[in-house]
Each structure stands twice: as C-alpha cells, then as structure tokens.
UniProtKB/TrEMBL annotation, chain A:
One of its GO terms (biological process) is tRNA wobble uridine modification. The lineage of its organism: Eukaryota, Fungi, Dikarya, Basidiomycota, Agaricomycotina. One of its GO terms (molecular function) is tRNA (5-carboxymethyluridine(34)-5-O)-methyltransferase activity. This is S-adenosyl-L-methionine-dependent methyltransferase. Keywords: Methyltransferase, Transferase. InterPro entries: AlkB_tRNA_MeTrf/Diox, Methyltransf_11, SAM-dependent_MTases_sf. It holds the Pfam family Methyltransf_11. Residues 59-147 form the Methyltransferase type domain. It comes from the Eukaryota. GO terms for cellular component: cytoplasm; nucleus. The keyword Glycosyltransferase does not apply.
From TrEMBL, chain B:
InterPro entries: Trm112 (IPR039127), Trm112-like (IPR005651). GO terms for molecular function: protein heterodimerization activity. This is Trm112p-domain-containing protein. Interacts with TRM9. One of its GO terms (biological process) is rRNA (guanine-N7)-methylation. Transmembrane segments: none annotated. Belongs to the TRM112 family.
C-alpha cells in the first residue's frame, strides 16, 4: 500500500472528547500492531537515559509500549522509569517491555494530571505524546505537569514531538504549504492501516474486506513552537529561564529556574531538554 | 505494576484533595512475589526520596515486617536486601487503593492501577 498524504484537520467540539475518539480509542485498537513497529529507541533519548545517576527515578509520560522503560540496557536496575499512558492495551505490552521475565512499573493515567507526591521524580520524559493533545493550552499544561513532577533543584526533563519538517526517512508526506515558515504547527490526521491478522475485529466481522484504517490526530509542531511552549509553561510556574546562578551572582535564595540544555530537530521530531535549578 | 516503589510516589489528585492525600491505602490486595535483581547502589540512591513511615506502614499492612520503624544509619546488606524485597519484589496484582482524605478509590487490575478521574473530580 502506498504511503498516504497527511490530511489537514480541524479540532471540533470538546478537546477531551475529540482526543478520546481520535487518539485514545485508536491506540487501544491498534496497540499490538503499533507496538510491533515501535522498538528502536531514538539516540537522543537513549543518551539522555544513559546520563542519569544511579538511584534516580523518573516518569515516562505517555509511555506507549514502554520501549524506554528498560533503558539504559547496560545498567539494568540503576534507574527506575515508571510508565504512564491512557491506553490500557499498550500498557499491557509495556509492563513486559524489553524482557518478558521482567515486569515494569506502569499505570493508566492522563498526562494532564499529577497523581504524585509533589516533585517526587528526578527526571521525566515525554516522547511522541504531547502532539496528540488538541489545543495549545492542553499542550502547555502537559509541559507544566512535567516541570512540576521533578525535583526543583536538579530535575531533568526531555520532550519529543512530531515536526512539520519531515525527513526523507519518514514515509509520510508533508502537507503542501505555500507559507514557508508557519509560526504555529498544523493539525492533521494520520492514517494507521491495521493489518488484517492483528485486527481485533477480524474474527467477528468477516465481511470487512481489506485492512481497517484508523485516523490518529496529531498536532505537527512548527520550528520554535516546542521551545515556546516550554518557556510559557516555565513562566506560569514562575521559573526563571537561564543557567543556574553562580554563588557570586547573589541571587535570592530559593529562586527557581530552568536551563534549556538542548533544543533541536532529529528525524522528523523536535526535542527540548531542560534542567531545573534552585538557588541556595 | 504496583510495587511499593511506585505506591510510595503516588498521591490522590482528586479535586481539592491536597492534604493528607498520601499514602493511598491498599484494599483487597492480591499479592504476587517475583524475584528481582538486587541492586544495592540503586537502593542507596533512592533511599533519601522514600517516605519512610508510609513505606513501613504499607509493608506491614501487606504482611511484611522486615523494615525498622526508623531508617537505620548503617546500610548493611541485610537491611538493603529487606528493602529490595519490599520495594521491588512484592507485586499488588488486584485490589484497589483508597485516599485517606477524600476516600477516592483507584482500582488495580492485572497489576495496573488506574489513576484516571472522572471529569468532575479533576482539580
Ligand atoms: Zn483524595
């Protein structure tokens, strides 16, 4: 089947209901097939997880099939990443991610909630998740939750989202656009073609000819949009932006902030990494 | 999974439930013990983040009395092995967790807790 062009879309009605229908329900349906195509960790994320200190615990917000939960592979058990996702069917796969004789910690939850003791984690990652939220405000709230759930004096956060700028390795086509640099991203739906043998309904509805197609909603991020979202979230939390102040800077005690460590594009995705700091 | 490593981090997040919302109390917990690889360096690093009283109380409710009421100053192998067992080898497979403040119940099924709230319960 040839790759299909992305289709522009407009989010209508209540954004939460829209996400239920166009994101969560779809992932529950396609979980097994989807997971079989998502096994290769991206290098920036693998490096981030390798750089964490032994004894750290973290949150993978929107863990999907849990492919980042076993990392780093060369230091098993040195850190613990807890996976949260809306799709129960994906979590059933995630709890066995990496090794079937090993159980991961996963829970059903919403990336806009905060069911944790305050700032209890050392790190948080959110990979290919925030782009499924249907409004700018909801995406900003998701970033706020990440900044809130990690320790204010050393927490590290890495966020990955899908970019409008796609590379040739991706089989998807970018939407035709005359505006060379749109300031804000684009809402699209991406078809998922569920192969017949993995379709849950294939036994019950034999009359369906050919594979089933599910459309997933995405917000494709424009250049600079993810960083802007992070800076807006930081401002709402009264976090300064910049490097950790030095002792001679005489910054008021307990002043808090974030430092943007990385801000880039990799393989059709934008990513931002920040570190939290607190003056002492 | 709900092991005590995760349980010790969770708090109720229902609307306006901000105090005394931790630890969630297990109810009708069905346990499974599964061996996990012992990693003392992880435990030493994680120890300062544990809410100790909550961990000891919850372990006792689940029938494990191996942890002392106060965190010891000397981290010997026996203590670390007990801590390892409590945090990483006791799996709550079925049951629920109840908020001590508002009484909200978070169900656990097939080892996976559900922390979602209905729309009107979100703060
Ligand atoms: Zn509560």
């Amino acid at each position: 089947m040839p790759p299909k062009a992305l289709q522009a879309t407009t989010v209508q009605g209540d954004p939460e209901t829209y996400e239920d229908q166009n994101v969560h329900n779809v992932y529950d349906e396609i979980a097994t097939h989807f997971s079989s195509t998502r096994y290769k960790p991206w290098p920036i994320i693998a490096n981030f997880l390798s750089s964490l200190m032994t004894g750290w615990i973290g949150l993978d917000s929107g863990t999907g099939n849990g492919k980042y939960l076993p990392l780093p592979l060369d230091r098993p058990g040195d850190i613990w990443t807890i996976g949260l996702d809306r799709s129960r069917n994906l979590l059933e796969i995630a709890r066995k991610a990496g090794r079937s004789d090993f159980t991961r910690e996963v829970l059903v939850g919403n990336v806009l909630d905060n069911p944790w003791r305050p700032a209890v984690f050392d790190y948080a990652i959110s990979i290919a998740t925030i782009h499924h939220l249907a409004t700018h405000e909801r995406r900003r709230l998701a970033v706020k939750r990440l900044l809130e759930c990690v320790a204010p004096d050393h927490g590290r956060v890495l966020i990955y989202v899908w970019a409008i700028e796609q590379d040739e390795l991706s089989r998807r086509k970018v939407i035709e656009d005359n505006d060379p640099s749109p300031p804000i991203g684009k809402d699209v739906v991406v078809p998922w073609v569920l192969s017949k043998e993995l379709s849950k309904s294939s036994t019950s509805s034999k009359q369906i000819a050919g594979p089933q197609v599910y459309n997933r909603y995405y917000h494709m991020f424009a250049k600079g949009e993810l960083l802007r979202l992070v800076l807006e979230a930081a401002a709402e939390l009264q976090l300064q932006v910049g490097s950790r102040p030095k002792a001679e800077d005489a910054v008021q005690n307990d002043t808090r902030g974030i430092e943007v460590v990385q801000d880039g594009w990799e393989r059709s995705n934008y990513y931002v990494e920040v570190r939290l700091w607190q003056a002492s | 999974m709900v092991r005590l490593i995760t349980h010790n981090l969770l708090a109720c997040h229902a609307k306006d439930c901000n105090t005394n919302n931790f630890p969630l109390a297990f109810k009708d917990a069905q346990l499974e013990i599964r061996e996990a690889e012992f990693n003392p360096e992880f435990l030493k690093g994680f120890l300062p983040k544990i809410e100790w009283t909550a961990l000891v109380d919850t372990a006792r409710q689940l029938g494990d009395t191996s942890l002392p009421l106060e965190q010891p100053e000397m981290l010997d192998d026996e203590f670390l092995k007990n801590l390892h067992h409590v945090l990483l080898e006791i799996h709550v497979e079925e049951g629920s967790m109840t908020c001590p403040n508002c009484g909200h119940v978070y169900p656990i099924s097939n080892g996976i807790p559900n922390m979602l709230l209905a729309e009107h319960e979100i703060g």
